[in-house]
Structure formats: C-alpha cells, structure tokens
Design brief:
The complex is a heterotrimer of chains A (about 325), B (about 350) and C (about 290). Helix content of chain A is about 30%, strand content about 25%. Chain A has an eight-stranded mixed β-sheet with strand order 6-7-8-3-9-10-12-11, sandwiched between helices. The longest helix of chain A is centred in the middle third of the chain and has 18 residues. The two termini of chain B are about 40 Å apart. The two termini of chain C are about 20 Å apart. Classes of the chains: A alpha/beta (about 325), B alpha/beta (about 350), C mainly alpha (about 290). At the A-B interface, helix 8, helix 9, helix 10 and helix 11 of A face helix 6, helix 7 and helix 9 of B.
C-alpha cells in the first residue's frame, strides 16, 4: 500500500467556553489515499465541521487542537507555525464551504479573486494567471469562462458561485480538499451536476477529498469510504458499500433505517429515539448508549475502535448478521 | 368534482414593489427593475378529503408561494381557493381557521418571547375554541398528542431542541382544529435522526384526525413516503400531477424524469457509484421565462412546437395529468431504458 | 438550563457580571429614592419661602444658619440649603426626565410600529416626518417650543417630547420592520389573529430591547436638556429650582470664589446622567448579539 496523503491520528479539538469544555472532536483517526473521496457523515453538533476546520488549522479561540496529529504528505500540520500553515493552506490543502457567498468577496471580480489566490502561492504573469483561471473554471463546468472572469459574484447563480469556489480551491492542485456541505444549499439538479464533476475531478487530478455532509445518500453517491461521526467521535468507518449494506454501529444502522426510502410509503419510519446529547455534558462511556436499544451495563465504558477487515466501529454490541460481540 | 380543497385558476404575481425613490428613478430613465415575477401561473387542482398531496420542485418553482396562497397567508393575484365550498380569503384577508400551516424553520416560527403554551393557546382563545380559564388543559391535551410533556407549557422556545420546537409548531396548527394542513418543508431544517420522528408523528396525526394535507418539500423521498398524490412544479406551473406510485414510477414529464434522476439515492447493493441523470443548465430567471413550454431550453425531448406553444394539460389513462407536448415519447423512453431521446 | 430560566432572569444574570454597571444601577436607584423621599431626607423645604432667610444666602459649606442646623453644602443666593435644594432639584429633574421619556416612548413607539406594520403611504408619511425632525438639533426645537408655550412643567415636558419622540419612532420602526418579516409574525397572522393582537402580543414585546436602550439614553438626555433650558432661564419658575436652575443661579458667583452654588448641583447632575448612561450601555451591549461573548 502506498503512503496516505493525509493521515489523522487521535485528533481532539476542544472549545473552552464559559459554560465549560465542549469536546467537539474527540480522538478522530483516519487515512486518506491519493484521489480518494471520503464521506464524513454526521448530524449537527457531531463535530464533522470542526474536524474539517482542524485539518486546516482554522480553529479559532476559544477552541484549540488539544491532542493528536495531522500529517499531510508526511508533514505534521498541528505543530506548524501560522505562517508555514498559511503556505500550505490553499496550495496543499484547501476548503470549500457551504455558503459560497460568504467566501467570495462581493467587491472583486471572479478573475481578480482567482488571481489573488494564485499570487498567494506562486508568481505568474497576468496572462498566465488568466489562462489558469479560465482553464479551471471550464473544468468545473462554467460556460464561456474567459468572459466570466470579469463578472462579480452577484452575477452568478448559487450553483455557479459554488463552482467558482471549487475552481479556486483547485487552483494549486492541492493534495486534499475539505468540502463542508458544499451542495446542501443547492437544488438537486445542480447538486447532481456538481457531484458528477467532483467525482471526475478527483479521478483526473488525483486530489483527495473529504466530503462533509449530513446526507448519507449524497456521500454514498460520491465517496468510496465513509466515516460516521456522533458526538465528536467517529463511531464507524469503512468502505461505502460495505458500511451501508452491513452497518455495525447501531447509530449507523438507525440512520440508514430511518430514511424514508427504506420503508414502504405511508408506513411508520424506523426512528432513533431521543435527541443528540449536548457536547458540554456527554454521558459517560458510549455517547449513543442513552438512545440505543442494544445498550447494556457494559456501555458505561467507552468502547474502543474495533478494527476488522478494513473497517472499524466503536461498539460493544455491533449489529449485523456476521457480527459477534467480542467477549 | 370530488375535491375538498379547490384551487381554481390561481396566479400570484409579485410586482416590482418599487419605493418612491425608485419610482422617480424609473421615470427619469434609471436602471430599475420594473418587471414582475409570476411565481404561480394559472394553477388549478383539487385536493380530496383526507388525502395528502405532495408539492415538489426546485427553489423558485413557486411551491411555497402556492402553499401560502392555499393557506390564506398570501392573497392570489387572480383565481380562488375554497375549502368545502367556502373561500379561504375575502378582500385579501383570511376568513377561515379551517386551514393551518406548519412552517419550515421551527427556530424562526415560534415567538422567542412568548411561553410555548401561550403560543399554542392564543389562536384557540381568539377564535373561541377554548376559554382563557380552560386554555392550560386544552394546550396540555395537544402537547400530549404531539409527544410533548404538558409540564413544559411555561417554557420558552430556546429551551427546546429543533425536533421539539417543530412538535410545538404542529400543536399550534392542530389546536385550531383545522380540516386542512399546509406543511411547508416541515422537516427540512431538522437533523436526519429527528426527521423520522416528525414524519411518523405527521403520518399518525393526519390519519387519526382525518386531515387533508398539502405537503411541500424539495426532498422527493419524504414526499414519496407521506403523499397519496404528488404535483411537480416548474417555474410557477404544475407540469405533472398524479398518484405518487405512477408519477415516481413512470414519470411522463421530462422535467419530472430528470428531477428524479438527479436525486442521490442510497443504493445498498451496488459496488459501483451511481450515475446521475443530470439536467443540463439551470432554472431560467422567472423575470423572463422562455417562450412556449418553460422547460424547453433544458429539455432533451424539445422540438419546434415546444418553443412556440405552451403545452395544454393532458389527462392520462392512469388518473394523472401532464403538461408536455411529448409525454408519450417520455413514457416510451422510461419503459425502454435504453431508448435514447432524439 | 434551569426550569425558571425566563428571559428576564438570564438578563439579570448577565447584567450582574459587569460590576461597574451594577454600581451605576445602585447609584441610579439611590438617587431616585433620594428624589422620591426628598421631603424626608432634606433638612429644609427649599420651596417654602417662609423657611428661607436672606441672611443665610451664599454661605459656604459647613455654615450653621438661622435654622440652627449645619448647611453641609452651603446655601444659594436665596438662602436655600443647597443639599435640600439638590434633593428637590433631583426630584424635578428625574420627574421631568421620566415623564418626557415615557410620553415620547409611547408616542414614538406607536408611530414607529404603526408605520412598520401598515406600510405604504402611512409608512412613508410618518417616517419622512420623523426624518425631517431628526435633521433639526433637538435643543433648537425645544427652545422654540418653550418660547412659544411659556414656562411650566407641562409645557417643558411637551417641548422635550416634541424634541425626542422621533428617536423612539425611528428605533421602533427599525425593530418592528425587522420583526415584521420573521416567521413567527407570519405564523400568528396565518392563524388568523387580528393585526392588533399580533402587534400587541408579538411585535411589541420583540421590539422592546432596542426601545429600552433608547429609553435609558433619552431619559438621561431629557434630564440634561431640561437642565440646559433651565440654565438658559427657559425652564421652570424660579421658585422651584431644578438642578439646571441651581447651576444657573450660582453661575454669577463662580468667579467670586463661591463655587459651591454651581458646582455641587453640577456634580449631582453629572453623577445622575453618567450613571444612567452606564446602565444604558450595559443594557445595549446585552441586547446586541454581535457583542455577545
């Protein structure tokens, strides 16, 4: 096996607020190979977005990475100075956000913004920069890209703006792109266009991606492997098809079973009872135990990540036909 | 007609809504947008008693506007909405309590400074469904019904989670004892694991109370699950309407077909990634819709006639209606998956 | 989250964290109590001319006058005990400030919310009028009105209201316009509830935070505006001096070393206004979500 481009080990990011310590990310580990797309799935407050921010060193006070390592192409990112980190950001690892209107400057044309993004990391002449920008805009599916360089963000539709944001993220051919719910605000027909293109881009350019989403169906159509987060931890990870077909963690199983597509129309859906716990006061042991039908006394201890056959789960009582509870 | 809720030739046009300054600027020849938007154009449909009608489409297709017209929140520019023969609005004012609404965002739809019990009881008190003295018991009943603990009536909205807030919003609507419920994206802003709880509650309540429902959502799988019939909207018009199984199974309008093809599906038995049937291009601006059939610039089936003529609504044999010149070709191509549209 | 976590309780819990604001609040409450019970705490009734002796006029602090008690802060040109005069003056200043504040709050809120709720021509008419008035200096307007109406408490309050209601109208309008577009207002109207009920039960309570902020600032402004008018001799009758008039009375003697007649009422006025403003600032910060920690 080749070395992973991104290797995250035991990453923990906590927020030290007036109300107490919020353990937003708690011991997260995963590897990402070149050109691989990983789906990071979770509900609001599961820590998926903070995980993404932590990878780029974008966590602001009162939050900080308290533990763990993030290795990008062999370089440890958590110990880099802000200056060195800034050099990596945008060139080696970049991020796409849910709301492109918040990331594009309304006062500058798309061309100017792309030129600035290029200038931040390398010296190119105006003509060469324009050519690079045009090439990338075309690649993400923006028609008559050369002419659109002179347009301002408000002249683009939501879907087109997100494409521009993706093009900017791709400018320096980064090894890894972290995409935080980039299609959630878009219509399904536009989402389908972008998902198809991202799939092709990852294959063509070898850029690896972490696709953060609350929507299992979206990531399952894009990612080759999945990590499911709950209350700041990855509770289950593995190849997409295996994980969806044969989930081991009761939370994953519950999420899949609760989808309307899994039930006969008009019949009650399988529901996960209760609500997600507050990250300020997590229950002892397995955070999912209070909502879990499989929970026993043993779940008052924290289940470790069990690794079997290329997948992993944090549960003492895994579901699934082949599963046997480890003694 | 067997309908209970009649929507008769309803159109809703949003004017340019100019301020005085803009009006002066327009007179002086300034660049001011003076075109109006036809958010809903000539929609006629009826909803049967006890049925759930799903309303789907992408953002800007007019589904929310149509929902608000049916709910009596927005007066239609032309046309009427009646429930069991009585109009919902008169002179721009809602005159019935028989239709109630559940809104999308439970964080915005509850007054942050009002106790949730008062939020639920103020409508019934104002309309004589209960008295001030009995309000607490009345609210408690509805709280129990939607799965909330009645001791919470004195709490404020910020003390509840999103799912609980949506239950409160549902209680507020149901406490008015409506016959018709308009649900505008009621689960769109909820977490996945909470959505199932609210959908189940909705199914249970509509069945037990015999409610007639219009369920608006962009999430096709949710609509497919809860609806009896579904109406698909594109740029303010209904392009296809019929029983869920037929519309979802064999779409007759090219837009319906493409929309369903775009939805990411959770496919458990495929080892390869699913291919999308994507629609090219984007929804045109409703300020200047295309000629003829609004969908023709994006439609693989489009011919000259689509550019020139707006298609009439045709009734198909399987109790559905479709507005497309070429629905037969669409149906044929769906039956034979390999058929390529010309 | 506790069960009794009403908005008011949370507000107070946060307010308590700013010590300076708490001290300011204590001072404001203390001054209001002093003003309320001025007749009990004052050694003398400064408005009863029978109590005054010209023999005692312009005496320095610590002087024992014909009444047989010590004038701790000295006396004014009419022979009033300054401490008593300050307590009574505080009473008048606070009375006028509160009265003018509440009347302008009521009128301004009514106009602003009406404009925001009804929209259209009424909105345009009310708000242009308010804008027009806001373009004049408040003091100028108050001067003109007092000059036209003559002296006396009701006239003075009327002038202050006329000069200040526009601030409340502007604030209420902005807040109501923002709240009007929110889902919960639409949800209430969709039931349907009458417009009056929605305004009264939903719009008004949700517009109060910015109005409270403006009210505290405007009460302080009313007090200083009243003091200014009195100082210029356009305020209240000389027989019942407010703080502004006390300052004005002592002004001619400042240069002759009899500083206390002007300075002590001035200090009282400054303490009152600064304290109100500190409380107002804290309230504003708490209502502004952007400054929230």
């Amino acid at each position: 096996m080749t070395d992973p481009v991104l290797s995250v080990k035991n990453l923990s990011t906590h927020f030290f607020t007036r109300a107490g310590v919020v353990k937003a990310v708690n011991g997260v580990s995963f590897d990402l190979a070149r050109g691989e797309i990983m789906g990071l799935v979770g509900e609001s407050g599961s820590g998926k977005t903070v995980t993404g921010f932590s990878l780029l060193g974008l966590v602001d006070a009162p939050g900080r990475i308290v533990e763990g390592s993030v290795k990008l192409n062999g370089t440890e990112l958590t110990t880099l100075s802000q200056r060195d980190l800034r050099k990596r950001r945008g060139s080696d690892i970049s991020m796409i956000f849910q709301d492109p209107i918040a990331t594009l400057n309304p006062m500058l044309t798309i061309g100017q913004q792309m030129k600035m993004a290029i200038d931040a990391h390398e010296r190119l002449g105006t003509r060469a920069a324009d050519a690079r920008a045009t090439e990338l805009l075309t690649q993400v599916g923006i028609p008559s890209a050369a002419a659109r360089l002179r347009a301002y963000p408000h002249e683009f539709s939501g879907g087109m703006r997100q494409r521009v944001a993706i093009a900017i993220a791709l400018l320096h051919r980064p090894s890894v792109i972290v995409a935080d719910e980039p299609t959630t605000a878009l219509d399904v027909s536009i989402q389908a266009q972008i998902l198809t293109q991202m799939r092709d881009l990852a294959a063509e350019t070898g850029t690896a991606m972490i696709w953060i989403s609350h929507d299992l169906a979206v990531v399952s159509s894009l990612a080759s492997k999945l990590a499911v987060m709950y209350a700041g931890r990855i509770v289950e990870q593995g190849p997409t098809a295996t994980l969806l077909r044969d989930p081991r963690h009761p939370y994953t199983a519950g999420l899949i079973a609760s989808l309307p597509a899994m039930a006969k129309p008009g019949t009650p859906l399988t529901q996960i009872p209760g609500t997600t716990p507050s990250l300020l006061s997590l229950p002892l042991g397995c955070p999912f135990a209070p909502r879990c039908d499989h929970a026993t006394n043993r779940c008052k201890d924290d289940p470790p990540m069990t690794h079997t056959a290329g997948r992993g789960y944090r549960c003492f009582h895994p579901t699934g036909q082949t599963a046997k509870a480890p003694a | 007609m067997t309908g209970f809720v009649h929507i008769d030739d309803v159109a809703r046009i949003f004017g340019p809504n100019l301020t005085t300054g803009e009006r002066i600027a327009a007179k002086l020849g300034g660049k001011v947008e003076t075109r109006s938007v036809r958010a809903v154009s000539d929609v006629s449909l009826s909803v049967r008693k006890g049925e759930t009608l799903g309303l789907v489409g992408e953002s800007g297709c007019g589904k929310s506007t149509l929902g608000r017209v049916i709910a009596g929140i927005l007066p239609p520019t032309s046309g009427t909405v009646t429930i069991d023969g009585t109009p919902v609005m008169e002179n721009g004012t809602k005159i019935t309590t028989r239709v109630q609404t559940v809104f999308q965002d439970p964080f915005a739809s509850l007054d942050p400074r009002m106790k949730v019990g008062d939020t639920v009881s103020e409508g019934p008190i104002a309309h004589g469904l209960t008295t001030k003295a009995n309000a607490r018991t009345y609210v408690a009943e509805w709280f129990t019904r939607v799965g909330l603990d009645p001791v919470w009536v004195d709490r404020y909205p910020h003390q509840f989670s999103g799912g609980q807030r949506q239950r409160i919003a549902i209680a507020r609507a149901l406490a008015m004892q409506p016959d018709v419920l308009i649900c505008d994206e009621p689960v769109a802003s909820l977490d996945v694991s909470i959505q199932a709880q609210i959908i189940n509650l909705f199914l249970e309540l509509t069945r037990d109370l015999g409610l007639t429902t219009v369920f608006i959502s962009h999430d096709l799988s949710v609509v497919q699950h809860v609806s009896d019939r579904v109406a698909v909207m594109y740029l303010g018009r209904i392009v296809e309407l019929g029983p869920v199984a037929n519309v979802f199974g064999t779409p007759a309008h090219p837009y319906t077909k493409a929309l369903f093809g775009s939805v990411p599906k959770l496919v458990l038995d495929a080892d390869e990634l699913v291919k999308f049937d994507t629609i090219d291009g984007e929804v045109p601006s409703p300020l200047s819709p295309p000629s003829g059939c609004y969908y023709h610039p994006r439609c693989p089936y489009a011919t000259e006639v689509c550019k020139a003529e707006q298609p009439q609504t045709e009734d198909l044999s399987d109790v559905r209606a479709v507005a497309c010149h070429h629905f037969q070709r669409v149906l044929d191509s769906t039956k034979d998956v390999r058929a390529v549209p010309e | 989250m506790s069960n009794q976590s009403t908005p008011l309780r949370r507000f107070w819990a946060e307010f308590r964290e700013n010590r300076i604001a708490v001290v300011a609040l204590v001072i404001v409450v203390l001054l209001i109590l002093l003003a309320l019970f001025a007749s009990l705490v004052s050694p003398q009734n400064p408005y009863d001319l029978a109590n005054l002796s010209l023999m005692d006029s312009r005496r320095p602090p610590g002087f024992v006058g014909s009444g047989g008690y010590t004038h701790i802060l000295g006396t004014d040109p009419q022979g009033r005990d300054l401490l008593s005069a300050i307590f009574y003056g505080l009473r008048i200043s606070i009375q006028i400030g509160l009265a003018a504040g509440f009347v302008s709050l009521t009128i301004g809120t009514f106009l602003g919310i009406t404009a925001a709720y009804l929209g259209g021509r009424i909105e345009a008419l009310i708000m242009r009028l308010v804008d027009l008035q806001l373009s004049f200096p408040a003091i100028l307007l108050a001067l003109v009105i007092v000059a036209l109406l003559g002296q006396g408490k009701p006239q003075l309050i009327g002038a202050l209201v006329a000069a200040q209601y526009a601030y409340f109208a502007r604030t209420a309008y902005g807040a109501a316009k923002a709240e009007r577009g929110k889902d919960y207002v639409e949800a209430a109207l969709a039931i349907p509830l009458s417009g009056r009920l929605v305004v009264w039960r939903h719009l008004l309570p949700n517009c109060t935070p910015p109005l409270i902020v403006v009210a505290t600032v405007q009460i302080a402004n009313s007090i200083s505006l009243e003091a200014t008018l009195s100082f210029l001799g356009l305020g209240l009758p000389v027989t019942e001096p407010s703080l502004g008039m006390l300052i004005s009375n002592g002004f001619p003697y400042m240069m002759s070393g009899r500083y206390w007649i002007s300075v002590y009422p001035g200090i009282a006025l400054i303490i009152l206004i600064v304290a109100i403003n500190i409380v107002g600032d804290q309230v504003r910060d708490q209502f502004n979500p952007r400054l929230r920690k």
